[in-house]
Amino acid sequence: MNASIASPTNRPAELSGQTVLVIGGSAGIGLATAIRARQEGADVILTGRNADRLQTARRDVDARAVAAFDANDATALRGFFDGLDVTLDQVMVTAGEPHYGQLMELDADELRGAFSQRLAQVVEVAGVAAGHLRPGGGLLFMGGTSGRRPGVGIGAASTVIVALPALIANLALELAPSRINLIAPGFVDTGLSAAILGDQLDTRRDQLRATLPIRRVIQADDVARLAVHIMVNTALTGATYDIDGGQQFVE
Question: pLDDT value at position 9?
Answer without folding.
Answer: 56
